[in-house]
Amino acid sequence: MGSRSLQREFSRPTVLRSAIGPLIIAALALGALVILALLLSETPGRTLRYFFLGPVQNTYYAGNMINTAIPLIFGGLGISLAMRAGSFNLGGEGQLYGGAFVTTISAIALGSWGLAGAVLSLIFGALTGGVLAGFSGFLRKQWNTNELISSFLLSNVVVLLVSYLIAGPFQDPETNLIATRRIAESFRLMRILEPSNLSSAVYFALLAVVLVHLYLYRMKSGYELRMVGLNPMFARYGGIRVSWYRIWSMFLSGALYGLGGGFAIFGTYYASVREFSTGMGWNGLAVALIARFQPVAVIPAALFFAYIESGARSAMLHSDVTFEIASIVQAVVFFLVTSSLLQRLGTKRRSV
């Protein structure tokens, strides 16, 4: 990869060019939904009406839709950071789940510490996700172990371990749910758009987008991280510590996942419920792919995925389709965003 491709990478793309691919993906995915409704539903008009209009029919549904997007924003940012450095974090499920669990236990233990306890709990949750992902980066640095495989396998172990802890030593005996004890009310974030579950966690998600964007495009470390992902050999000859950024990018990626899990506890669940985060890690990956690893574009991509889930839930309640229709549409999105043909739409082919 020569200097021209480097210049293209660090030049700001036009809005139109960068948006064409994701818009086509969204249109095709929604087109697949229409076809599914016509094939599977006895009342396709009713199904489509509640799918498309249900998520925004009132403040309750709209607030819950936005709330669903919050952990996806954190996950999309995490994947974007790792991919910008040429790493692939496939352990988001375990990092978010583990971070949420550690945040919950820390908040219960530090319940009398007030604001300091809340901040420390979120930090501990972020560190948990960061260490889990950073370990995969360390394995790549030391023995060139594929971080895609190691992060995925470690995530599976963490999910099983945390589920055991929630259902065993840390289960709340006073609830019928398989969950830990609830955090103190003083730790719970303020609700927005009641009676929906939307909380002030949305502000922290937006702040995270701004900070990640500033880090990548306004700081020396972010520039070096992107350079490592674009051309490691060029970066090494330029004096950049490539091996360090393999670990650092993975750590930041996992920390954002863990932080997303922590805010899910503080803003929505108030306790670690067994397997509450199922699918959030993978959806965060899809969000990053749709956004093409651009931090600001993660917001509309996360809202799109949340819209699909909310619409499917509304259609399930008011028509004859099941919630699995959302999984099918999400699978279509996964297929499309990994298509090399569609990934190149609206952009020039890079020379190597």
Number of domains: 1
Anisotropy-based shape? globular
CATH fold name = ABC transporter involved in vitamin B12 uptake, BtuC
Q: What fraction strand?
A: under 5%
SSE order, as H and E? HHHHHHHHHHHHHHH
Largest sheet: none
Q: What integer value in Å does the Rg equal?
A: 21 Å
- Counted by DSSP, the helix tally is 15
What would CATH call the class? Answer: Mainly Alpha
Q: What is the helix fraction of residues, given as a range? A: over 70%
Q: How would you classify the helix and strand content by structural class?
A: mainly alpha
Task: Compute the average pLDDT.
Answer: 88
Between the first and last Cα atoms, what is the distance in angstroms?
A: 4 Å
Q: Which CATH architecture is right? A: Orthogonal Bundle
Poorly predicted runs of 5 or more residues: 9-16, 348-352
- The number of distinct β-strands equals 0
Notes on the structure:
Helix content is 72%, strand content 0%. The chain is mainly α and 352 residues long. It has a single domain, classed as ABC transporter involved in vitamin B12 uptake, BtuC, CATH 1.10.3470. It is globular and about 60 Å long. The protein starts with a helix and ends in a 9-residue tail after the last helix. The C terminus is likely disordered.
List key phrases describing it:
ABC transporter involved in vitamin B12 uptake, BtuC, 352 residues, single chain, mainly alpha, globular
